[in-house]
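Hello forum,

I keep getting stuck at the same step: I have a sequence, I want structure tokens, and every attempt I make locally crashes halfway through. Rather than fight my setup again tonight, could one of you with a working pipeline run this one for me? It's a single chain of 187 residues.
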Amino acid sequence: MKKRLAWLVLAFAIPCTPLAAAASPTSDLVKVEKTFYALKTFHADLAMASASISMDFVWPDRVRETLSNGMVAVFIGSNAWFSTSGRTMPMPAGMAAPLQARLQSIRTLGLQGNLAKDYAVTYTGMKSVGGVQARTYHLVQKTGSAVVDMWINTKHLPIQAVVKTSNGGLITLRYSQFNAPISINAP
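Reply #2:
Ran it on my machine without issues. Output:
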């Protein structure tokens, strides 16, 4: 009888146990970086005060952005196109470079430099985002002005990052559809 009671208590206790952070917040986020880089596809929604962008990524070199104004941009390797008002055209080379830099920033979770060397990382506890419990971290760049708050799911993948910009703005990134079947083709 005592054995059954012990198993019953254990069966109810395990699902109620909060997600534990690693021994070091920095080592936990290094694992997140590696897990995120191993993805083949993912989706991200970026929200700023002035606009929002929905993005699909197929690595190593395909990205589709849909801007809140209806414009769609497609990047495949070094080629880029944009569509607006029913017209699709190649993107001028000068326009593509800044957009590709922003896309790379999303791939690096909004972080610049080396996570372990360049950021002070603090585990801030369990919080819910979009109904999902997540470990949360606060990152402050040691030299510079980057401040990032991250929500990490049980599979060591980011589900949200909030980046405080140097001018006081906020950029919120929500990640989803990890390794989902996403197809991006040239228009």
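Helices lie at 2-16, 25-37, 93-107, 115-118. If your local run keeps crashing, start a new thread with the error log.
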